[in-house]
Amino acid sequence: PPLDEILNLHDFESVAKTVLTPKAWAYYSSASDDEITIRENRAAFQRVWFRPRILRDVTSVDWSTNILGCKSSLPVYISATALGKLGHPDGELNLTRAAAKHGVIQMIPTLASCSFDEIVDAAQPNQPLFLQLYVNKDREITKKYVQHAEKRGVKALFITVDAPQLGRREKDMRMKFVDDGAGAKVQEGQKDVKKDQGVARAISSFIDPSLSWKDIPWFRSITNMHIILKGVSTPEDAILAYEAGCQGIVLSNHGGRQLDTARSGLENLIDIVAALKTKGPWPNPNFSVFVDGGVRRASDVLKAIALGASAVGIGRGFLYAFSSYGQEGVERAFEILRDEFEMNMRLLGARNIREVVPDMVDASALSAH
Ligand code: FNR
Predict the structure, then answer these.
(1) End-to-end CA distance of the chain
(2) Would residue 254 show up in a list of annotated catalytic residues for this protein?
(3) For residue range 7-36, what is the model confidence (pLDDT) as tens digits?
(4) Which residues, if any, are the signal sequence (predicted)?
(5) Beta-bridge partner residues of 190
(6) What spacing in Å lies between the alpha carbon of 56 and ligand 1's midpoint?
């Protein structure tokens, strides 16, 4: 369908399913084991209800915000998703260029199809970029990569901590890996590619399962970028991240692709925020809490913000947008979200992001806490 008939982020998924190769669809859409967690990521948002306030003069509403010191036109960033060229020949550059035009922040994946430098070269001067990091068994490779990113102006390092081993995504595993040029180029020292177990497993054997809390000071010693742990699920680990001197965490289950039946980030948010409040001021200017997983509507984002998130990550929504329509698809996705923010914030009675407060949601049905 023509792009102007796309009315919401779900529509991109329907189109992507028809235009992607079976291999790409399997890699992008799959989640681990019985795919319970990916279902819950969506379902959790539907258990939170709004408590809209009225008569607040909502003539002008502003949903722009600041994410880790960077301006963002939306309280949303593009979360890292690997292998963009499986979906579109321009791969991740679709996101970079659309993000530049719309003032949105992209998190570059370690396993991007385009090289890191190609992506940074495609960005505008001063366009804020984040980097997602998979930590290599060879720390020298990781150190070079991180320091190169900092030199090229990346603002924050999101270390993925929920993937010491990649989950079993069985839809993907049924597809054989063929090196057709979409693969990630950045990881040298990756010799033992297993080609009979799907895309994900073929590209991930370099990831170091020995990564531990002891490594955090080492990261701090090699970079001045903000350090965020991506894939935190419990108050215990949120506190450890805070005490380790990280600048934030992402409550994420990797889009349901790692430990199946892990709870959704949204469900974990209330307890984690409560735990962090015992440790310092709230909102804490030095420690941000992000959420991702299942976000497809501005209303989802507003629920997470009301419950204490600084901003929210979207993976598949944008991935399906560029797979279907390239850069223009991503731009359309941003415009759709913009329209949804305007309407939802007016109807909610919040004129800016600071006015999206806990009292604006009823989360009593979300989960036991
Ligand atoms: C991901 N995600 C991911 N995360 C990460 O830290 N490193 C990675 O390489 C990838 N790759 C990746 C590929 C694909 C195809 C998907 C769908 C996801 C997880 C991603 O950053 C984010 O946590 C989820 O995508 C959020 O859930 P939604 O928005 O896809 O529902």
Answers:
(1) 44
(2) yes
(3) 999 999 999 999 999 999 999 999 999 999
(4) none
(5) none
(6) 38
Q: Which of 10, 79, 250, 253 to mutate to test the pocket of ligand 1 (most atoms within 8 A of CB)?
A: 79
Is the pLDDT assigned to residue 338 strictly greater than 90?
A: yes
| pLDDT above 70 (res 321) | yes
Amino acid 180: pLDDT: 67
Closest CA to 24 of 158, 156, 183: 183
Q: Which residue in the list 11, 90, 162, 300 is annotated as catalytic?
A: 162
Other beta carbons less than 10 A from residue 138's beta carbon: 15
What pLDDT, on the 0 to 100 scale, is given for residue 332?
Answer: 98
Query: Active site residue: 145, 172, 254, 325, which one?
Result: 254
The CA 61 to ligand 1 mean position distance, Å, reads 30
Q: How far apart are CA 299 and CA 313, in angstroms?
A: 14
Residue 14's pLDDT is 98
Ligand 1: residue whose CA is nearest its atom 24: 255
Structure confidence at residue 203 (pLDDT): 82
Q: What is the pLDDT of residues 258-288, one digit of tens each?
A: 999 999 999 999 999 999 999 999 999 999 9
Instruction: Give yes or no for residue 292 CB within 6 A of ligand 1.
Output: yes
132 lines ligand 1 (CB under 6 A): yes
Ligand 1 atom nearest to 230, measured from its CA: 6
pLDDT tens, residue by residue, 179-215: 666 665 544 444 455 566 677 777 888 999 999 999 9
Interface TM-score (ipTM) > 0.85:
yes
**Would you give the DSSP letter of residue 6?**
-
Distances (CA, A) of 5 to 244, 310, 342: 48, 31, 20
Indicate whether residue 314 lines ligand 1 (CB < 6 A): yes
Q: What b/e string do you get for 283-307 counting C-beta neighbours within 10 Å, with b at 16 or more?
A: ebeebbbbbbbbbbbbbbbbbbbbb
Percent of the chain at pLDDT exceeding 90: 91
Residue 276 identity:
L
Q: Which residue's C-alpha comes closest to atom 23 of ligand 1?
A: 254
Active site residue 88: no
The residue written with tokens 């409560």 in the block is: 274
Considering only CA atoms, which of 118, 81, 74 is closest in space to residue 97? 118
Decide: 293 in ligand 1 pocket, CB within 6 A. yes
